[in-house]
Specification:
By secondary structure, the protein is mainly α. Among the domains are: 87 residues, no CATH class; 116 residues, no CATH class. The protein is built from 17 helices and no strands. α4 crosses α6, α9 packs antiparallel against α12 and α13 packs across α14. The longest helix is centred in the last third of the chain and has 48 residues. It is globular.
Length: 427
């Protein structure tokens, strides 16, 4: 029993176990970091604000010779005034548009029913008939969809009311975020030095290597997406407000601008996922002017993105669109709607962490068979036997060649003696 246990112990490859544990540990750490970031959202937001204000703070220190504390205070205050002012105005405008949308929702449901009846009549005139019960099933589906949309909108309005009633808590979060932003920006070197003291040096080197490789891709990607989302949002907001001012049949420009710019930032999808169907519906309903205007807006947004994206993103994600789609779905399952944006980011992080393993084959190193000690001994013994055989055959060959040489010499001597001394003619 003890011999079998020791044999199995020697045969077990601990390198595979360590590699599997390493993969599991990385996945757990990444998941916990994102969950912790959501749980400690004010501090996560403070870290984001600190990163955003660093370039302007360095500019104030180097060019205008401000002290670090003054430059940090000025940059944070200026950034927060712009950011919070924009958020406040957007929230007020968005609340008004959502309220108008909730009032007009019944009217829109009747418009959808009218549109469906008109479309059915046109198709009837072309085809002549439909399967029995088809019309009723479609109407029930539309009514169910409208009821679902109404319930979702009602829950959203309730959430908005809860948001308004929780303003004191929000003010507390804002104060914590502002103070945390100031402390992180002012003492970032001390914080980093403290964190480096808590971990082994090998871990720190590994983290810095991953950070350097990863942020070349991830940093440029997130920065570019924020810039492109902002540009897309203002393009849509200005265009929709112009159309609304010109008496086009377009309401709620702010809601549509926010929704479309978020969809435009998602990988694989884009602004066309909303603008093109919307334009098609406008053409079908007879609103040709709005359909053409939406097509013009779509091509404007698309051309600006195609022109700016190569300049803003120095490196591509380097993954197949199917992998990106899987990461978006997984992010949605783990983190909810925000997971559509978090999923690709996590995918980029894991791709850079396991870059070496992906190059050599992710599972090849784990499941490659390692020869046992007995097999090694057998192969070594086989090699030694072959070497001995080769040595014996070599020695036998040498003996044979020596014997042949000796025989040839003896024959030559014998012939010489016979020729010189025993030849009858010379006697």
């Amino acid at each position: 029993m003890k011999g079998d246990f020791m044999a199995n112990y020697k045969r077990f490859d601990f390198k595979k176990l360590y590699f599997i544990l390493y993969i599991v540990l990385v996945l757990i750490v990444v998941y916990l970091l994102f969950k912790l970031g959501i749980f400690l959202f004010p501090f996560t937001l403070a870290l984001f604000f600190s990163i955003m204000t660093q370039p302007f703070s360095r500019f104030l220190e180097k060019k205008l010779k401000f002290s670090q504390k003054i430059a940090t205070i000025v940059s944070i205050v200026l950034f927060l005034v712009i950011f919070l002012g924009f958020i406040s105005l957007s929230t007020l405008r968005l609340s008004g548009e959502i309220y108008k949308l909730s009032i007009n929702l019944n009217k829109y449901s009747k418009d959808v029913q009218t549109l469906w009846n008109t479309t059915i009549d046109k198709v009837y005139s072309l085809l002549g008939y439909f399967p029995e019960g088809f019309d009723e099933q479609v109407k029930n589906s539309i009514n169910g969809f409208i009821r679902m949309g109404t319930s979702k909108l009602g829950s959203f309005i309730n959430s908005l009311i809860n948001f308004i009633t929780s303003i004191p808590t929000i003010i507390l979060y804002i104060c914590i975020t502002i103070l945390s932003t100031f402390f992180i920006s002012l003492d970032k070197n001390k914080i980093m030095a403290f964190l480096e003291q808590q971990f082994p040096e090998s871990w720190i080197k590994k983290v810095y290597n991953i950070k350097r490789e990863m942020f070349n891709v991830l940093g440029s990607y997130i920065r570019a997406q924020i810039i492109l989302m902002t540009i897309c949002f203002f393009e849509l907001l200005i265009s929709f407000n112009i159309l609304s001012f010109l008496k086009f049949n377009l309401q709620y420009p702010l809601i549509f601008s926010i929704v479309i710019c978020i969809i435009d930032a998602l990988p694989i999808l884009g602004a066309g996922a909303v603008l093109l169907p919307w334009s098609l519906i406008s053409f079908v309903t007879g609103d040709i002017n709005l359909g053409l205007a939406l097509l013009v807006i779509y091509f404007l947004v698309l051309s600006v993105r195609q022109m700016l994206e190569p300049k803003l993103i120095s490196q591509n994600l380097g993954v197949h669109p199917l992998v990106t789609l899987i990461s978006m779905y997984s992010g949605f399952k783990f983190f909810g709607v925000i997971g559509f944006l978090i999923g690709p980011v996590v995918m980029i992080i894991l791709k850079n962490v396991f870059s070496r393993e992906l190059e050599i084959g992710f599972f090849r190193e784990i499941f490659t068979e390692v020869p046992d000690d007995d097999d090694k001994n057998k192969s070594d013994n086989g090699k030694s036997d072959n070497a001995e055989k080769n040595a014996d055959s070599g020695s036998n060959t040498e003996l044979d060649s020596n014997s042949k040489n000796n025989e040839s010499i003896n024959e030559k001597v014998k012939k010489y003696i016979d020729k010189e001394f025993i030849d009858d003619r010379k006697c």
